[in-house]
Amino acid sequence: MANLYVWVDERQREILTQRVLRLHQNAGYFRELPVDADPIEYLIHVLFPDGQPCRFHAANISLTAAEEGRTKLALRPAIDATGDSRFPRGSSLALSGSWDRRVPQPIFIISGIAEISDCATRDFERLLDVFVYHHDPQGRFRRDDNVLLSEAVLGLPLISRITEERLKDWDEFVRWKRKLVQASAVGLRFAGRSWLDEKRLAFEVVAPDQVAMQQAQRALVREELRAFAIEASQDPLVFRPNDAPRRPRVREFTLGKGEPGLSTPSTPWLGKGAPDGWVTARWVLAPDEESLNAIDATEESDAVRARLLAQIPEEGFLSVSMAGDLSLLKRHEQAIQKLKEQGGSSPYLSAYLFDVRQARSPTSLAPVSSWQQSTLNEPQRQAVQKMLSAPDLCLLQGPPGTGKTTVIAEAMLQMVSRGETVLLASQAHTAVDNALGRLGHSTAVRAIRLGREDKVTDEGLAFFGSRSLQRHYEALAAHAARQLDAWSVDVAAYDALAAWCDRASFALANIEASRARLQVQRAGLEPLELAYDRTWQALQRLAQQREDDATSRRRLVQLQQALVAPSDTELLGPLPPALAAEIDALAVGILSLANLGVRLRARTAEWSSQQAHRAPVLALLLDDLQLVRQSSRRLRADAERLRDRPDGLHQDPALRLQIERLKREVEAALARMDAEPDDARHQQAWRAARAEVRRLEQAQGALFDEAACTQLFVDISQWHSAMPDVGTLAQQMLRALDAIEGRLATVHLSERRMQARIGELLAADDVAPIVDERPWREAKAALDLWKSTMARTEAALAEQIMQGEAVLRGYPQLAAPSTVASEVQAAGSFDPPDVRGRSLDQALLSAKDALKAAQANAEAQRAHRALWGPLLSAWVRDLRGSDAAEADWKHLGADWPSMCNVVAITCNERDSTLDEAGQAQFDVVIIDEVSKATPLELLLPLMRARRAVLVGDHRQLPPLFQESLDAVTVQDVAEEAEQADPGGATATALSKANLVRFERMVTASLFKEHFEAADDAIRGRLSVQFRMHPQIMSLVNRFYEGTLSCGLSQPDRQRAHPFVLPDISGNPMLTAEDHVLWIDTSRGLDGQICSEDLDPQGRPRRTNLLEARLISHLVLQLDRQAAAAGHSPHRRMSVGVVSFYAAQLRMLRAELDRVKPRGGWQALEVDVNTVIRYQGREKDVVLVSLVRNDGRNDEPGRVQRRRSSRANVARYEFINVALSRARNLLIALGARSMFESYEVDLPNMDQPGHTRRPLYREMFQQLERDARLFEARKVLAPERPPVWRPTGPSGRNGRTGGPR
């Protein structure tokens, strides 16, 4: 094995000592470090034992092949599967240093130490087996078999060639931005400041002469300014920005824009120390929007103005905000240099900083045993687990309203619970403070906010300075108080459980008594039910007998009637059995007529075979019998007539007379027809008479009644033959009729016998049985009485069971779950047993056992509580003292920041801030809104931790050109600089070529690239939003390709609003069911094409008076309706008025002040601010002014011109943020003609590249379909606001719809 010679860089010994101690005290390293040992000597002895064999993972962390003749190396001990007792499980240390390649016998000089995650050999590492020796570089020793000269080390690859290339660009980028800053570093000295009125500041500005003052004032008048202390300049009179680190921090204050021109003429400056010849004048400036909002939001405006004035230096310089960037650039240069040297706490950062594929993925997700926030959904929990598990880097995209701040807070709580330290950072103060505010009060968290106090928001101030200690004291006091509460609750809990046992015993006794009574009553019920059944059955038998007798009588009567008039009587049901012989004799007699050739419809076989259905057969026979008798009488009359008139004159005289009469009618009808040929009635009468004559003449030829023959005989042909001897035929008929009548006589006798028998039966059935109901009624009364008694007993038992269930629900542990956290439960403290799922009697047994155990344990705990109770009580009183934290801060203030495990800063904070706080390195850094920061701004926090979590959304705010209120990116400034001053210094630096060259430095592409290329195990996206009503989300979802979903269970109720906005005709534009309204400002109130406001030279002012007036009108209506709906100064509805430009904010504020009622808004809390200040915030109602409108007529039906990316509309990221701030109602005001033809280069969701889409056209089409798009002239009458038109050749502004 080769030899490794090591030594410690004496220049870094103090820093290394602090880091070793911190690792030992806070991270669990070097547990056996003696108290009096030198930490560095111990480190070298443990990790580099002199003369002993060791194994290391070696990495060449140099970023260039020939970097100052030195090679930078990182060594980390190789740990086998069994672990290493020197390090916490899963962790290791990376010792970084360098060696001089120009020395023939080099030594590895250790200059840094960082905590890292243990892992297998990485792609850029080699495993070295060496003997280690301690060699002082100053000594003259032989260093044979030097591993630093071996191929194993010399052949190590560079850690990242990508980072090497990017660093070159970064160096040039910083020089480029310095040039921009220096080009705009114009300042004006001021010697005093005061409030001119409620919302304007007056500065006493001074200059060498009037010309210099006017030049400086003209250079600054269009910019947002800052007031810098004198120390910000190298010269106390002439502004020369000082980029050297300043300690203490130089005071500065953000202002708005100044009014054009000076408010007073120049006069000689006679102040103390004034140079000869200098002049002074007064210049009026507005505070920034944050200050104005603070003034408007309070009733104590004088106190707020006094506080704001105190924050402004008494004298100093007025300059643009970029002038304060020189010190920031200096910090960026230092960060780049540190990265080149691989300093900081993340020695392998450069490996994956620009190539996320080099970041390691976890083998599994870290389990979470207990969630601090139970409301997290599954995607949020998975995101937290990925943040806990990623060895190097984790990326999380959080679209609007998806709860990324909640996820960050949960992740920090979980990390702290695992003993890790967290650095929380963001480019924006609001994001940092919002995340801190979600931490709650946990004794495990010691959080502090570092930075400038005047920049920290109210949420962050709770963690600033001594208030950080106060918050920790509050958490400790609450924790100790819960312990005391647990002890004090013991007695009360014991008494409560004892009382519960008494109630439960009483309830159980009542239940058992009722159950016993009910058991006796159920036993006596059976005999009564049997007696009732017997009497009821007897009663039913008598009733059935009566019914049967009545039915039999009805059938006898029917049969009696059928014998007399069979055709008028219907026989129903079976025939009476008592008449079976008589009925059979009668039926057989009638059926015997068939033997004489008589026609019968029933047959003997039917009567014999259908014993059960003889009633209809008998009815048919009786009917046939009646027909036979009738037909025989008629035929006997015809036969006797034929017998008596054998001469042939056998026609019926009546028939002959009828024929003669009809013939006379025929002749009379003919005569009438001749007389009145048009009368159809005569013809009808003639035809009817002729037809009747023919029928009767045909009937004259029949000898017998044809109908009677057909009814009587089966064969009638014998009675219609052409026999010449009519007398003989008559004799035959009479003989046949005699035979039939003889048989009918026999049948008649049977009828008489049946009539007599029916009479006997009817006479015998006159007496009906008597039904006695008394036995049944007596049995029923007895049974009902018994059952009612049982019902009362059952009801009483049910009530007692319910009372028992109520007693069970009132069990101390179930009725009021303990608020005492398990972490503060003292050993031996009384806790009622868990009886969930048990019955009342089981719960009572458990409770009695618990009471017995508590009695036995009370004596054992008495001494413990007597000792600690007073101490804890005194501690709680001390912690909650009004000045406890403030008093302790005097002694702990210097050390407290170093003891905190959560530290919050902004990305642009001074590097020394963390060092001064004793916070050199962290386990994890979480950077929020990472897409809003440039890669340079990320360096400071990234280099402070061994692993990083980047949280952002590259579809929201991109990096800004400078810290201001305007939504202006570097691209916007470059385009405007080229247009305004093509040959100026700023335009030259902000050329399109430079813009393309430094695109990665000034856009959010770094986070986008990483997110697209990262392994799924180290990236996550939140897609369930809980902020916006689904109607608002549908617009915002256009920016996310429809991937967002609404997590609100009842959005119409949870995001309800009371507003109804009518148009000028009184028709509703918006109702309570509408949550989005877009007002198109392409045209003025008179219907004419209009534009945004222009200055006399025709340049956009970035203001839109039409939109400002419309918004003031709408806010006034909202205030009145909110007051009518029950909102008040004590219960206000939050309203945000959002725009992209500070100039528009001033106009909006002026218009709102113009319509605001005396005494302020009745029911609204109105916050006017730019979209820059609104990221991370939300309001009930948001009104957005998009401002830009070039006045082009691109209405439907006309040839539309596509606008390029130079259309000067706000970038889609800003519009996305503006539209997604509203919870309940979104009202947007913007020119459809300006935005509809503008195409957006929208990044793809999970793959590289962009897709150009007509995003706003799709939005307007959706709004139009949903009837949520209205023209401005529908909102206000045309005489209201003046609206600036585009300038003509003369450069003058026109007006449309303005007041006269």
Outline the structure in words.
The protein is 45% helix and 15% strand. The strands form 8 sheets. It has a 7-stranded parallel beta sheet with strand order 16-17-15-18-19-14-20, sandwiched between helices. Strands 1-5-4-3-2-6 form a 6-stranded mixed β-barrel. The protein is an alpha/beta fold and 1300 residues long. α10 (378-389) packs across α11 (404-417), α15 runs antiparallel to α21 and α17 crosses α20 (706-712). The chain contains 41 helices and 34 strands.
How do the strands and helices of this protein lay out in sequence?
Blueprint: E1 2-8, H1 13-26, H2 39-47, E2 53-60, E3 70-77, E4 91-100, E5 108-117, E6 125-134, H3 151-154, H4 161-183, E7 187-197, E8 200-207, H5 210-220, E9 225-229, E10 252-258, E11 267-268, E12 279-287, H6 289-296, H7 301-311, E13 316-320, H8 325-340, H9 349-352, H10 378-389, E14 393-397, H11 404-417, E15 422-426, H12 429-437, E16 447-449, H13 458-461, H14 466-564, H15 580-592, H16 604-609, H17 614-644, H18 653-675, H19 680-699, H20 706-712, H21 726-764, H22 774-809, H23 812-815, H24 840-879, H25 884-892, H26 896-899, E17 902-906, H27 911-916, E18 922-928, H28 935-942, E19 945-952, H29 970-980, H30 985-989, H31 992-997, H32 999-1002, H33 1005-1013, E20 1019-1021, E21 1024-1025, H34 1030-1036, E22 1045-1046, H35 1051-1054, E23 1061-1062, E24 1068-1070, E25 1076-1080, H36 1105-1124, E26 1133-1139, H37 1142-1155, E27 1164-1170, H38 1171-1174, E28 1179-1185, H39 1212-1219, E29 1222-1230, H40 1232-1235, E30 1240-1243, E31 1250-1253, H41 1255-1265, E32 1269-1271, E33 1283-1284, E34 1295-1296
Parallel strand pairs: 1-5, 1-6, 14-19, 14-20, 15-17, 15-18, 16-17, 18-19, 21-22, 25-29, 25-32, 26-27, 26-28, 28-29
Antiparallel strand pairs: 2-3, 2-6, 3-4, 4-5, 7-8, 7-13, 8-12, 9-10, 9-13, 10-12, 11-12, 23-24, 30-31, 33-34
Helix pairs in contact: 4-8, 6-7, 8-28, 10-11, 11-12, 14-21, 14-22, 14-24, 14-25, 15-17, 15-21, 17-20, 17-21, 18-19, 36-37
